[in-house]
């Protein structure tokens, strides 16, 4: 069964700030890739995708995970591919980490989706809309409050 996990970002958490949030995305990508998942991280724009890729380069060597922007890197791909609106992921991905605030029309090609409920009210409302869309599409849904070291 296809699943969607929404991670809830609390206002007082380190993930409420951009650097903390991007570090948490890296943490999740590392966690899932070490389990063998092929991951597509969907960003809102090319600029945000490039910013996230830079975060992936700035980690300690023990935390590094191979990654590439869509269209770059080896032909067979790395475990983590980073893309943005208007760019389709490689076909061999099982897990989508959605960082864009709009609905992902291609999410149905993934067996597992990770999404976020941000702090800001407008972004929270957009997350609620995505939640409804996933529910109507028949995904099994769950929510998790982020509990990550500060």
The CATH class label is Alpha Beta
> What share of residues are in beta strands?
15-25%
**Oligomeric state of the chains present here:** single chain
Order of strands across the main sheet: 3-4-2-5-6-1-7
CATH H-level superfamily: DNA polymerase III subunit chi
**Structural class based on helices, strands and sheet pairing:** alpha/beta
Q: Helical segment tally?
A: 3
CATH topology: Rossmann fold
Rg, Å, rounded: 14 Å
CATH architecture classification name? 3-Layer(aba) Sandwich
Describe this structure in words.
The protein is of the alpha/beta class and 150 residues long. A seven-stranded parallel sheet has the order 3-4-2-5-6-1-7, sandwiched between helices. 30% of the residues lie in helices and 23% in strands. The mean pLDDT is 89. The protein has helices at 18-34, 46-57, 121-136; strands spanning 3-8, 39-43, 67-69, 80-84, 95-98, 112-117, 140-145. It has one domain (3-145): DNA polymerase III subunit chi (Rossmann fold).
């Amino acid at each position: 069964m296809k699943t969607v996990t929404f991670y809830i970002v609390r206002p007082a958490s380190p993930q409420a700030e951009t650097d903390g949030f991007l570090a948490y995305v890296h943490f999740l990508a590392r966690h899932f890739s070490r389990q063998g998942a092929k991951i597509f991280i969907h960003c809102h724009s090319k600029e945000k995708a490039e910013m996230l890729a830079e975060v992936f380069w700035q980690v300690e060597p023990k935390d590094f995970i191979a990654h590439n922007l869509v269209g770059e890197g080896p032909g067979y791909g790395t475990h983590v591919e980073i893309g943005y609106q208007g760019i389709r992921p490689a076909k061999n991905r099982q897990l989508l980490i959605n960082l864009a605030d709009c609905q992902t029309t291609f999410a149905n090609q993934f067996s597992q989706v990770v999404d976020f409920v941000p702090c800001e009210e407008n972004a929270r409302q957009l997350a609620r809309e995505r939640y409804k869309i996933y529910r109507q599409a028949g995904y099994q849904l769950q929510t998790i409050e982020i509990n990550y070291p500060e």
